[in-house]
Specification:
Layout: H1 8-17, E1 21-23, E2 35-37, H2 39-58, E3 63-65, H3 75-79, H4 82-85, E4 87-92, E5 99-101, E6 130-133, E7 136-139, E8 149-152, H5 157-161, H6 164-170, E9 177-186, E10 201-211, H7 216-233, E11 241-245, E12 257-264, E13 271-281, H8 283-292, E14 298-300, E15 305-307, E16 310-317, H9 318-329, E17 330-333, E18 342-345, E19 356-360, H10 367-378, E20 384-386, H11 392-402, E21 406-410, H12 412-417, E22 419-424, E23 430-434, H13 438-447
Parallel strand pairs: 3-9, 19-20, 19-21
Antiparallel strand pairs: 1-2, 4-5, 4-6, 7-8, 9-10, 10-16, 11-12, 12-13, 13-16, 14-15, 17-18, 21-22, 22-23
Helix pairs in contact: 2-9
This protein binds adenosine-5'-triphosphate (ATP).
Adenosine-5'-triphosphate binds near residues 199, 204, 274, 315 and 317.
């Protein structure tokens, strides 16, 4: 049963109309499940990535940042198990030529009318399931031969594992410590869809935390809680967030324990994974030791012992969290004393693409000049937007729809007493603020 309304279609249209997200190569008819972030979308996603980076890297002594390459030595993917095992079960329909994930048939739709699950029409002829590897292959160098095959990474984690000792030794870190990175990953998903929820090119924010064996479950619990707190601090509603524990049958080949953070996207999509927290044991480092013949042990000087650390991983999709933030923020409401309702993106101010918009009430009496001066003074501290077209009501609506927390208006009084009004997106309350105090006023509200 759907617990939250389905706002996906409305969001897709708002995102296109207001410059958040466009279909990739739209003028050529689009590319299947690949999306481009427009001017406001790139700011929103960047703000989310910055919050993650600040929480994971900047604010901690025990986590280091990394930016590993997308293309890696092909042996990496043999060691990680991806060449042999990164597969989804695929079924074809001989009638409609559709391809579906055998384990997700309930989420798929047969192209025949009326819309049903694949296999449910009399005419459906589904084949036996067979394994389909999700990695994109390409060739390195001038020869397209099997010896030069490389893969577009399907996760960022392996770039961290192969650099474990480089980072530990260059930064003189002691276990327990972590390595974090943000980067693109690629999966040739059989059934992508639901806007930016499941795409073939996406961005991951992953952190691998290396710990002494035996302390792993304690750290696992700690990271589970910390990651849930991060999503809450992003403004996602507590009733939309839940943990989902992986049962024995669901656990990946490398995992000793796994929890997903799930978010309620509403409608039939409902609760879905946005982040995975995994106890990977020593699987990855041991595999890379074997395949590379290089030791990946940690030497604990204090206790004079050597061991291969266990790894607690937190893995979250930047695009999926962006979608969760948008779904969570979207609301339609009536406004007292006005006929027209408003659409609001109630985004947490720290991730809103525009922090404040500034409007001259009229296009004369020096108001535009004063508004532009104020904007120029503030824009290096806060992304700003200037708008002088249409009624003030219309200008407010435009900003509400993209989640701008504050609208500043320069009016007749402003040019005489150097004050402006500041309207709050959510409470609609208006404060009269001295221009000289504006930066501090906004900073207190936006960063507080
Ligand atoms: P699913 O079961 O949804 O395919 P997964 O369990 O394979 O996901 P992980 O490998 O744990 O996902 O990836 C970690 C995170 O990366 C996910 O929680 C999600 O936020 C993101 N992610 C994974 N695949 C995609 C995708 N195709 N598009 C967008 N984000 C993705």
């Amino acid at each position: 049963m759907a617990s939250q309304p389905d706002v996906m279609d409305k969001l897709v249209s708002l995102c296109k109309r207001r410059g958040f997200i466009f279909q990739s190569s739209e003028i050529y008819g689009g590319t299947g499940s690949v999306w481009d972030y427009g001017p406001l979308g790139v700011e929103l996603k960047k703000n989310i990535k910055d919050r993650w980076w600040n929480a994971m890297v900047r604010s901690r002594d025990d986590i280091e940042g990394l930016d590993a390459a997308i293309l890696m030595h092909p042996r990496t993917w043999e060691a990680s198990g991806h060449v042999a095992g990164f597969v989804d079960p695929l079924v074809d329909c001989k009638t409609c030529k559709g391809r579906f994930r055998a384990d997700k048939l309930e989420d798929a739709r047969c192209p025949q009318k009326p819309s049903k699950q694949p296999g449910q029409h009399d005419a459906c002829q589904l084949t036996e399931a067979r394994n389909f590897n999700l990695m994109f292959k390409t060739y390195m160098g001038a020869l397209e031969e099997s010896a030069s095959v490389v893969y577009l990474r399907p996760e960022t984690a392996q770039g961290i594992f192969v650099n474990f000792l480089n980072v530990q030794q260059s930064m003189r870190q002691k276990v327990p410590f972590g390595i974090a990175q943000i980067g693109k990953a690629f999966r040739n998903e059989i059934t992508p869809g639901n806007f930016i929820f499941r795409t073939r090119e996406f961005e991951q924010m992953e952190m691998q935390f290396f710990v002494e064996p035996g302390t792993d479950m304690e750290w696992f619990e700690q990271w589970k809680q910390l990651r849930m707190e991060w999503h809450l601090a992003l403004g996602l509603s507590p009733e939309r967030l839940q943990f989902h524990q992986h049962g024995a049958g669901e656990l990946a080949h490398y995992a000793r324990a796994a929890f997903d953070v799930t978010f309620d996207f509403g409608g039939t999509l409902g609760f879905q994974e946005i982040e995975g927290v995994h106890n990977r044991g020593d699987f990855d480092l041991t595999q890379h030791q074997q395949f590379s013949s290089k030791k990946l042990e940690y030497y604990d000087q204090l206790n004079n012992k050597r061991y291969v650390p266990y790894v607690i991983e937190t893995s979250v999709g930047a695009d999926r969290v962006t979608l969760a933030a948008l779904v969570n923020a979207y609301r339609e409401e009536s406004v007292e004393g006005e006929d027209e309702g408003r659409v609001v993106l109630g985004l947490h101010p720290s991730i809103a693409p525009i922090k404040a918009a500034i409007f001259p009430l009229t296009k004369k009496d020096g108001q535009p000049e004063m508004a532009k001066n104020i904007m120029n003074d503030l824009r290096m501290s806060f992304p700003m937007d200037y708008d002088e077209s249409g009624s003030i009501g219309k200008r407010y609506r435009r900003q509400d729809e993209v989640g701008t927390p504050f609208c500043i208006t320069v009016d007749g009084q402003s040019t005489t007493d150097q004050t402006v009004t500041v309207r709050d997106r959510d409470t609609l309350a208006q404060d009269r603020v001295d221009v000289s105090q504006l930066k501090g006023y906004l900073a207190a509200k936006l960063l507080g």
